[in-house]
Amino acid sequence: MNQTQAFHHRIDAALHNDQLRHNFRAALTGIMARRAEQFPDDGQLQALREQARQVRANSLVGQPDLLERLEEKLIANGIQVHWAESPEQANAIIQEILAAAAAKTVVKGKSMVSEETGLNDYLERHGIEVIESDLGEYIIQLAKEPPSHIVAPAIHKNRREVAELFRQFHPEIPYTEDIDELTQSARAILRGKFANADAGISGVNFAVAETGTLCLVENEGNGRLSTTAPRLHIAITGVEKVVEKLSDVPPLLEILTKSATGQPITTYFNMISRPRQPGELDGPEAVHLVLLDNGRSRIRIDEELLETLRCIRCGACINHCPVYVQLGGHAYGTVYPGPIGLALEPQRIGLDKAGTLTSACTLCGACGEVCPVKIPLPKLINRLRAESVQAHHSTTPLAGRGSLRKPGEAAVWRLWQQLNSHPRLYRLFTLAATRLRWLTPGRLGGWTRYRSAPRPAARSLRELARREGFADE
After folding, report:
1. Cα–Cα distance for residue pair 378/363, rounded to 1 Å
2. Which residues pair with 288 in a beta bridge?
3. CA–CA separation, 74 vs 83, rounded Å?
4. Is 60 exceeded by the pLDDT of residue 473?
5. For 61-111, what is each residue's pLDDT tens digit?
6. Measured in whole angstroms, how far is the alpha carbon of residue 237 from the centre of its chain?
7. Domains of the chain as residue ranges with CATH
8. Alpha carbon 137 to chain centroid, angstroms
9. Where would I find the H helices in 87-158?
10. Distance between CA atoms of 147 and 329, rounded to whole angstroms?
């Protein structure tokens, strides 16, 4: 089964799952409403978006220098820095750090970059127990599923489905479908894990080059516990998360939380600059940061596609996507779903492996309108669509470029171009199409899977106009 067939199979399964679609609609409607409440003044919103865009754009332009400054500051602060070009290298580095510390149990905060690398499976194969401490991540870990959303990983499950998971894996806990009681049960389960874990692993929302500070945004307190309770803390993030100054963080934080969950600010905002110092009562004895490239440097080469890396992982584009709300995240079959996934994944893993994703877009423009850092997502998705079928040579460093090109389809479009470029040929074609309309086939590939085949009219527009006395120009 090729990527197109596999994608269509997942789409078909999602569209036939009424409960799944109901879950997404119920959850996303509320999130969109809360976001709208946070931005009552459109003028202020646009000003904040532009400020956030400039911060991220400047960070990307100066990224090589900023990463060097970040490393220098982190080392001076006592944090060890590791560079990883690929997911395999990142996983190996983390496993080696854990092995050197004789760590066998890990509590893990939310991290989409670790989903890129498949870190959990890798560590478990090496005999290390990994417990997801974010409630949503813990739920899907029990279900043995990947996240279906970059902010709310278990958004595809309702409270009854969560209750069934808890009954299956924790039969000692009284069955309940009450959300507050389920949350309290999860807290009781995880509390002991924090106290006894040998190491904690987390993601990073922003890494500040000026001060060597790792910023972590969260609501549940699990991130703070994962990064302070164990004796060892390992953070992993993409190289694009670096920002220049500490003063760059407040506008990004403000628009991130409001865009992601409709909150003025999250419950917790962690700033990590060093391991535990002499005389301090808590905090890890050692802190490591793994900076992952995984194709990001290749994306930076193209001035237009570079804009993809401005993303701050708020999920607003996903929440407002009419396709995502019908399919859910798992239908995409990639780490990042929704509009940002359509723009990022074909670049990250190749058009030959993920180029088909770009067809899951109506180009309605909703994602571009809500993106807090003004990434022109529809434009980028359309660009990638074109790149996936282009035949001419290009210096664009996109893996799998032209891999979805179909010779027959390309020939049809070349013929269409010729017909519309030569008036006499076009008139001859319309004359033949109208007179032989009864020969129109009833099936026209994927177009007629859900639609009736269009049939030419009995007379062309030009003929009708002449009949009414309008002369040709």
Report:
1. 6
2. 80, 234
3. 13
4. no
5. 999 999 999 999 999 999 999 999 999 999 999 999 999 999 999 999 999
6. 14
7. 1-15+308-405 (1.10.1060), 39-294 (3.40.50.10420), 415-467 (no CATH)
8. 15
9. 87-100, 112-117, 119-125, 135-143
10. 7
